[in-house]
Structure formats: C-alpha cells, structure tokens
Amino acid sequence: MEQVVLLPGLMCDERLFEPLIKLLKPNYHVHVPIMDTQKSIDGMAKYLLNTISGSFHLVGLSMGGIIAMTVAIKDPSRVKSMVLMDTSPHSDSVRKQAVRDKQIETVNQPSDLERIVAQELKPNYVHDRSSNEHVLTLCMKMAMDLGCEVFINQCSALRNRKSLMDSLSYIDCKTLVLCVSMISFVLYYCARRNRGKNLKRRIINYSKLWTFTHSREAKAVYGENFSISG
User: Does residue 144 share a domain with residue 53?
Assistant: First the structure.
C-alpha cells in the first residue's frame, strides 16, 4: 500500500486532516507526524525521512508545506508527489522575525498562548469567520493541547529557516500548488520557470483551512492526485 504523509501547519495536528484521512485510508497508509520537539525545519525534515521508510506522497499546509519542500529537496527519490497549500519557499522577513521573537518571548504560560492564537493566528485562518467558527474552535483546541513549548519550537524553526528559492529546481515530482495567497502563486511561478512539467496550480479563493473541513471539497481537490473512492 502506498504511503501519504500529511504535514499540518503551525500548532495543528492530525485533527486538521480528519476528512482527508477518512478518504485516503481505504487506499493508502496515512502518516501524520507532529513536529513537537524539533527546533529547525531541517531537523523536522530529517525526522520525517528517518522515521518513515520507503517512498511516499506529501501533503503540506503552510509550515507543513515548507517541511514537504525541504524533504523533496533533500531526498527527491523518496517523494512520489506533493500537494503544497498556502506555503512559501521564502525565509522570514526581518519584520516577521521580529513578530516571532516577540511571540516567543511572551508565551510563558497557557493564557499567553491562548491570547496569541486568538489575536494573531486565528484572524489569518479563515476567509469567512461566520461560517467557519468550528474551524477556529478546532485550531484553538489543537494549539492549547500542543502547548507553549511546541509553539516556541515551531516558531523558532520558522523564524530561522533558510530560503528554498535557489533549490526549487531540485523538486521533480508531480506537484499541485493550491494558491490562496500571492506567496503561493509566486512559488508556483518560480518552480514552473525552473522545472515545471509536473507542476499544476489551482487558485482557491477560500480560507487556507477550507479544504479540510468537508469531505466533499477535499475529494474534489485531492481526487486528481490520489485514488479516492466513495
């Protein structure tokens, strides 16, 4: 049975992918590694490569997409295909690094984490808050369950990551880029110019978490990359 590795975004876990996992499980062995102790993107990529044997398909959202690209660059022979969602090959800007520094410095207890998720993370998660409150509730639950230490580790990894722009041409597997932001569109454009024939792009004008909240939409998006029945 082929393997699919699902890589969540910042402070998310396997619950984010529940509708997709249900669709994939009849035909694939599904892994959802949680990067909770690693403090660098390279460390996260190495952990994935060392703990999951053989080849696999990668699906990554945001931070998960950065990990997926890093894995595909480090060992392209292991990656059969990728789906990259609302992610970026760029390193953090100086301004973004300063934001992360402040978050890391101030998250000393659960109430600090709850404040950061509510005020600084959740507003970026959905396009229409009124119809996606259940998604925001889930995001808060996942973040609080993972806790402050994981937040610090993951933020540090994102803050200190290197740009992947010069290495995108090493990615030669079938890749679907779901664009819900201009950054993802730039990723598509740059990779297409460097390599390209296996790359597809789809623009999704919804929240970045939209594709995981309903099985019907998940099937529509991923059906062309995976064997999904039902």
Answer: no
